[in-house]
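Deliverable D2.4 — example input (structure tokens):
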């Protein structure tokens, strides 16, 4: 997933990967030898001491706070009409125009995409997919196995970044997948009022230019 640097030249976006907080695992914070069996068992269920001291746990903790915020917004969004849900896109853009940042609208935007996907595709993003979308937005790598929903995950970061008006490129490995995803996931974006483009081999320059001007453009890396 890449910000559009073809249709609208701009400064390269710096990675916003969440910086892990410093964590000390000194003897002062180690479990006491006199800890009760119940306490020890509880700690084991939560994870090994090495896991608890791992910086990764702190990074993931930030993402779970985002998931909690997204989940809290789900019930009220369910009650909105289609037109009210579609109107959220212009609402977000207006807020960004008044000086708010993508971070300010991220939880709401992710929740809107989740609800739009539920209505248009019959698919609801799982919590772990919300985390995957946040990782992509932060400019980091989200490794997922086949069948875990990479295609659906990309809609979250693509929609959020397209709100700026700069355009977003979603890159896959071949023309077939690019076309499939533009048609399939494009239903979510079009429902929310965004334009969706597709780049294919053999396209003329004017066709490519028109598709690159869309809010979200699907293409391949070949």
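Example output (designed residues):
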């Amino acid at each position: 997933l890449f910000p559009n640097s073809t249709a609208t030249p701009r400064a390269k976006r710096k990675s916003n990967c969440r910086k892990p907080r410093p964590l000390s695992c000194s003897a002062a914070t180690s479990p006491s030898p006199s800890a009760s069996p119940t306490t020890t068992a509880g700690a084991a269920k939560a994870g090994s001491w090495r896991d608890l001291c791992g910086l990764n746990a702190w990074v993931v903790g930030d993402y779970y706070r985002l998931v909690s915020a997204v989940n809290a917004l789900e019930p009220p969004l369910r009650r909105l009409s289609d037109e009210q849900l579609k109107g959220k896109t212009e609402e977000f853009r207006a807020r960004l125009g008044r000086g708010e940042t993508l971070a300010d609208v991220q939880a709401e935007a992710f929740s809107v995409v989740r609800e739009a996907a539920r209505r248009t595709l019959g698919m609801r993003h799982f919590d772990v997919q919300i985390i995957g979308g946040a990782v992509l937005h932060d400019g980091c790598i989200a490794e997922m196995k086949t069948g875990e929903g990479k295609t659906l995950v990309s809609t979250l970061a693509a929609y959020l970044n397209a709100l700026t008006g700069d355009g977003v490129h979603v890159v896959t490995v071949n023309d077939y997948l690019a076309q499939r995803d533009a048609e399939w996931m494009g239903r979510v974006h079009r429902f929310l009022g965004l334009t969706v483009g597709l780049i294919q081999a053999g396209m003329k320059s004017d066709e490519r230019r028109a598709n690159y001007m869309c809010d979200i453009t699907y293409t391949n890396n070949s």
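The first helix runs from residue 37 to 46.
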